Amino acid sequence: MRKMYMSFAIALLFGLFGSVQTYGAAEEKSEVHGRVHHFKHNPELIKKQAESLGIKTEGKDTETIAKEVRETIVKQKAKELEIDTNGKDLDALAKEVWETEIKKEAKELGIATEGKDLHNLAREVRETQIKKDAKKLGISTDNKDLHTIAHEVWEKRIFQAAEKLGIETKNKSSDELFKEIMTNHADKAKELNLFPHKGGKMHFFNKSIEN
Fold it and tell me: H/E/C letters for each residue in 46-108?
């Protein structure tokens, strides 16, 4: 079963030079948009992601590289999900990928989909996955809102990956560690199947297209 974790790749996929919408409290939306903003303005991370996808970056500006990364990821995910790409623009294809992923994740989590609005289903999938991951990681959910639990899951995944990669974590934030992983250890993280490369792919909660 593929996991969906909060971080930057889905933000890149559905949000970079596009838009991202999250499900939950306003502060959650603000936090994720902040992460997207950070990623959008970090050429080094975008270049590394492009190189890992086999995209040539020489002579291209950051915006061009980012657009090519997004297009490549969307098409790869579409292929994995057996979605026909013929005659579809990138935004329409990205939305179809998101909708298909949500339904697939719901099925894997044992969530009924019949008669449910897709956005409500996405909320349910996200909440179920977060609580499941928290339990697996030994994170208490007592008296915590979903935003807090999600943040704790995100941080623990990042610190676990950093430690397995031999990265010094003392006095570093999860965002700083994520940047270090992506900049200096992305290939090794993927090889070892570590977060944020789970199952060879980067996955997050909060996937949507704003209409």
Answer: HHHHHHHCCCCCCCCCHHHHHHHHHHHHHHHHHHHCCCCCCCCCHHHHHHHHHHHHHHHHHHH
Q: What is the pTM of this model?
A: 0.69
- Both tokens of residue 198? 């789970």
The pLDDT tens digits for 110-131 are 999 999 998 899 889 889 989 9
Dihedral angle, C-alpha 119, 125, 128, 134, nearest 10 °: -110
Buried b (16+ CB within 10 A) or exposed e, 158-172: bbebbeebebeeeeb
For residue 30, give the nearest of 43, 20, 44 by alpha carbon: 20
Scanning the structure block, which residue is given the tokens 């996991």?
A: 3
The residue with greater pLDDT, 204 or 69, is 69
Average pLDDT, the chain: 76
